Amino acid sequence: MKYGQILVTGSAGFIGFHLSKRLLEDYDVSVIGIDNMSNYYSPVLKEKRNEILMNYENYRFLRLDLSDWDKLIGSVDEDIDLIIHLGAQAGVRYSLENPWAYIQSNDLGTLNIFELARRRNIDKVIFASSSSVYGANKKIPFSEEDRVEKPVSLYAVTKRANELMAWTYHYLYGIKMLGVRFFTVYGEFGRPDMAYFKFAKKIMEGKPIEIYGGGKLKRDFTYVSDIVNGLIKAINADFGFEIVNLGNNRPVELNYFVSLLEEYLGREAKKIYVPKPKADVEITYADISKAKRLLNWEPRISIEDGLKRFCDWFLENLEWVKDL
Fold this sequence. Notes:
Elements lengths: L4 E5 L4 H13 L3 E6 L7 H11 L5 E5 L5 H7 L6 E4 L8 H4 L1 H21 L4 E7 L23 H20 L2 E7 L2 E2 L8 H11 L2 E5 L5 E2 L2 E2 H13 L4 E6 L5 E2 H12 L4 E5 L14 H7 L7 H14 L1 H4 L3
Parallel strand pairs: 1-2, 1-4, 2-3, 4-5, 5-6, 6-11, 7-10, 8-13
Antiparallel strand pairs: 9-12
């Protein structure tokens, strides 16, 4: 790896934590992590992730909000070789409740990161987008060549706006930009607001879980180590401006997903079937042919193996994860 100092935003977040840990353990690099440690979900989990990273001598942490330009430009005073921008306000449904948080964090925060790259002459930025940009598209699998003009949540709007901003900064200033559309990432130290984590907690507590759309909705669940491998491949890839899908390329029906959780947790779920929220889509399904071609990447972890790993971790840490 040719980069010596890498800035990772959202370093105490789910993907940011796993990526930073991998970089610190396996490569001769320094990582500067930025996170605002928001309370969108329990800060306890973010603090635990960050405590692990702080054990590495070549990790420096900055607690700040990316939307605060003055603090950002004043705090990042080192020479940065590469930015991996993963920090964002996550969650599709929460964007219906608090849309302002998404514009501030995802759009203003991303603008500030791109402007930081321009002013500090950083020639390469890898940034997180989302499968949510495909919105109400009917054609599957979702390809990067598809038009994405029908978002069904403000979260998706902000992620598409990030892609358009990235193109502008590439066109005007020559910054190499790679946007990565993640597909339903899951795994250890994951987000407690996501279905697999919420379901696991409620199953262990003997509480009912709500299953949308009769359990027929399908998601392209992608294990976090596969996502990290894709980002590492992106770091070493040569590109100008690109958008690429990182997904498992195998959509899984929600009913099957729940049956795996029941098997691995050793308990039967109490199920309540409810209508699909309007902001949710029927299926996500990644066409990964471009990732194979551009990054020489493809997923390795099946949903069966990945969920087993998550459930083993969940049960081993039940004493504190149950309170998240």
